[in-house]
C-alpha cells in the first residue's frame, strides 16, 4: 500500500493544471504516489495536454461534466490502495515537501480522519475556506445576515470561517476545504465517498460531517502552506454562484432541517432565496414537492 493517491478534478484550467501537476510530481519524501486527473469534459485541450506532457499521470476523461463530487468519485474509485487520499484542485501549487509533510502530520494524529494545510491566495492572504465550521442553522443565519462579516473576530458570529482563530494556530475544525483535503483510508471506507447530490461546493463540508460522525477528527495544519489561485474555473460563472447557495441548502436540508424550529427554518430559506433568487426558490419548492435526491455513493 502506497502513502498517497491524489485526485485532481479539472475543468478548463489547462495552464494551471500543468503547473499543479509539475508541483505534485516534484514532491519528495513519499513512499509511493499515485496521481489521477479526472477531466470534466473540458474544451480547452486539458486532457490532451495531460496525455502528452504527463504520461506518468493517470487520466480519466469524462465525456460529461458531472460535477465535482461525481468526478472525484471516479478518481477515488480508480485510485491505487493507499494509506491516504487527497482531493486537490488544479489551481493549487504544492511545495516539494508539502504532501509528505501532510502525510507525516496525519501519521502523528491517529484520530485524524481528514486534514488540510494553510491555503494562501496569490496575494499572500489566507484563503478563509481552509478551515471552517459547519453551517448550522444559527451559523447559516449569521452568514446570510452579514453578521459574520461585521464581527469576524467573534467566536459566535465568525464561526463559519473561524476568523477568530490565529492563522498560525493548529486547530481541530469542523471541515477543511476540498481544494486540499487529505483523508485517511479507514475514514473514507467508513464514511463512504462524496455525495453526488452536490454539483460543486458543499461536498467537502458534507464529507467532513460524515467523517466526524464516524468518530474521526478533522484538523487544520498551518505548518504546511499551499498556494491556491481560487475559483479559476468558475470565477465568472453565474451557475457557480447559484450552486454555492444550492449547496448550502442541500447541506441544511440533509443535516439540520428536520430538527430546526419553524421560525428559524423560514428565516434560513428566506435568506437563501434572497441570495439565490428565483432559481433558488424553484430549487426549494421542487424539493418540497418531493423531487428525488441521489443517495450518497458507497
Class computed from helices, strands and strand pairing: alpha/beta
In terms of per-residue confidence, which ranges show pLDDT below 50 for 5 or more consecutive residues?
Answer: 288-298
Number of helices: 10
Query: What overall geometry do the principal axes of the alpha carbons give?
Result: globular
User: Termini, distance in Å?
Assistant: 21 Å
Strands, count: 9
Element pattern in H and E: EHEHEHEEHEHHEEHHEHH
Q: How large is the radius of gyration?
A: 19 Å
> Helical percent range?
25-40%
* Sheet having the most strands: 9 strands, mixed
Q: Average the pLDDT over all residues and give the rounded result.
A: 91
How much beta, percentage-wise?
15-25%
Give your account of this protein's structure.
This protein is an alpha/beta fold. 40% of the residues lie in helices and 20% in strands. Strands 1, 2, 3, 4, 5, 6, 7, 8 and 9 form a nine-stranded mixed sheet that branches. Helix 1 links the parallel strand 1 (2-10) and strand 2. The model is unreliable at 288-298 (pLDDT under 50).
Give a quick set of tags describing it.
single chain, 298 residues, 9 strands
Indicate the topology.
Layout lengths: L1 E9 L3 H12 L7 E8 L5 H8 L4 E5 L5 H11 L3 E7 L3 E2 L4 H11 L3 E9 L16 H9 L1 H4 L20 E3 L6 E5 H7 L11 H11 L3 E12 L9 H18 L6 H27 L10
Parallel strand pairs: 1-2, 1-4, 2-3, 6-9
Antiparallel strand pairs: 4-8, 5-9, 6-8, 7-9
Question: Quick summary of this structure?
Answer:
The protein is α/β, with parallel strands linked by helices and 298 residues long. It has helices spanning 14-25, 46-53, 68-78, 98-108, 137-145, 147-150, 185-191, 203-213, 238-255, 262-288; strands at residues 2-10, 33-40, 58-62, 82-88, 92-93, 112-120, 171-173, 180-184, 217-228.
